[in-house]
Amino acid sequence: MTRIAVLGAGMVGVSTALALQDHGHDCVIVDRSPPGSETSHGNAGIIQAEAVEPYALPTSPLTLLRMAFGWRNAVELDWASLPGQLPALHAYWRSSRPDALRRVIPVWRQLVSEAIPAHAALIAAAGADHLIRKDGYWEVHGTDAGLAAAVLEAERRKGLHGTDFAAVDGAALARAEPGLRTAMAGAIHWTTPWTCRAPGDLVRAYAALFEGRGGRIVPGDATSLERSGGGWRVAGERVEHAVVALGPWSPDLLKTLGYQVPMVRKRGYHRHYDGNHGLSRPVLLADHSVVLSPMLTGLRVATAAERLGGIDVLWAHAGIPGPASVENLDLGEYELAIGLNLTSAVIAAGEVAKHMRAAGGGSLIFTASVSGLVGSMFSPVYSAAKFGVVGLTKSLAQRFAPDRIRVNVICPGPIDTPMLPGFVARSDDKAQAAENERKLLAAIPLGRVGRPSEIAHAGLWLASDDSSYVTGVALPVDGGYLAR
Ligand SMILES: Cc1cc2nc3c(=O)[nH]c(=O)nc-3n(C[C@H](O)[C@H](O)[C@H](O)COP(=O)(O)OP(=O)(O)OC[C@H]3O[C@@H](n4cnc5c(N)ncnc54)[C@H](O)[C@@H]3O)c2cc1C
């Protein structure tokens, strides 16, 4: 009997420990969190028996370019993280070439074909049948062209690998899934996959099985792994071998031991909605790379999106002067001003906050104006919207603080940009514009308008950890305009 530590109590770690135990080894699992808390909790729950070919990186330059610029939801590229990911991406690209794929596919297909039988044995032994559905999932398409291409691809796979499916049109799909309210072109029903109603619970059921068979799960930090005699020591345990099953964290630990494992960081996100949403089985919305999975406790919406890197900072900066007066108001002009100055900030914050929350924090920065702190001499609607942005900042700062998202707003005074004349010249009256400009300059103690770089530096500070204790602040960058 060999003593082995498995590092990581996700689906991979716990299943590996069970397999090693089955082969007669004495196993201990080390994890800093309880089993099934991370990626193995937040997924779409599909045991993808139909995925007999690996997801290859497209090798066509045009497709790559479209993906890089966010053409579809499937991939969002974070350019800043690209340099660090290049070696792994290059290895992925090389392995995705047709000749490399031809070599990989048989091995991959063999592994995938073992997934359901291997899970079936564990599910039965762990008493987890209530978590499993055995009726496949829908791959839904919104357009006839998309559906036709998907059917062709499914037929190719069936011919090559015998992967079963049934194609249905929009009417048949609507009858089968009345909960899908939008009319769709149709769907592929992948009939062989099993799906899980609570992926985290399944890992925990497997972990209980492992412990029931004599295994131990100990809390600890895998980075404490060090060589000890002929074996290893980790989290106070002495073992002969260690298995690294830390999911996306694996390459970081392996690097400290001198192994360079090229792993492209793929990330997805999920949201959970309570209640019965009327779906009988998971639905992949192929046009949007989103999976809707009915779970034990409601509906899970998971992105199939793969993100490289994340969003740490949002600077919502859009703005226009808006109407000069509230008299004879052009409602279209008014709505545009409110939309760009205020609504855009609200929407951007809502969209980005969920990514920051998932990543453990971030910095939201808005640009308002000194006109968001005192009434503007020239632009009442602009002033109203910017007061709104300041209020939004102070509210979100409190709301998002537990998620370690800081929220601040920069309030520039007059800055030398093409927008400045738009504020002072509110009519064709040149004398009036000159008078406005004179009044404005006279109100600035430093006696000059600001430079754009002076705003950029404030943004840089708020984005960086140098301002780590600053949140809910409306920061004037105004040459002393508000000091009067
Ligand atoms: C949105 C989304 C949807 C998905 N849908 C599907 C799907 O439908 N079907 C499918 O097959 N796959 C799906 N996946 C992929 C699947 O979830 C992962 O491949 C799988 O969960 C990886 O399991 P793991 O055990 O390798 O990693 P994890 O579950 O992330 O486990 C790694 C463990 O390592 C621990 N750890 C990390 N660092 C340390 C440390 N220093 N010390 C101690 N412990 C540490 C963590 O706490 C964690 O418990 C999806 C993924 C996402 C994000």
List the keywords.
484 residues; alpha/beta; Rossmann fold; seven-stranded mixed β-sheet; four-stranded parallel β-sheet; binds flavin-adenine dinucleotide
Shape verdict: globular
For this structure, what is the CATH homologous superfamily of the domain at 313-483? NAD(P)-binding Rossmann-like Domain
Tell me the name of the CATH class of the domain at 313-483. Answer: Alpha Beta
Segments where pLDDT lies below 50 for 5+ residues? Answer: none
Strand content: 15-25%
- CATH overall fold name of the domain at 313-483: Rossmann fold
Number of separate strands: 23
Radius of gyration: 28 Å
Span between termini: 80 Å
Helical content stands at: 25-40%
Q: Indicate the CATH architecture of the domain at 313-483.
A: 3-Layer(aba) Sandwich
Cofactors and ligands: flavin-adenine dinucleotide
Count of DSSP-assigned helices: 13
State mean pLDDT (0 to 100 scale).
89
Lateral strand order in the biggest sheet: 7-8-6-16-17-18-15
Major sheet summary line: 7 strands, mixed
Query: What structural category do the secondary elements indicate?
Result: alpha/beta
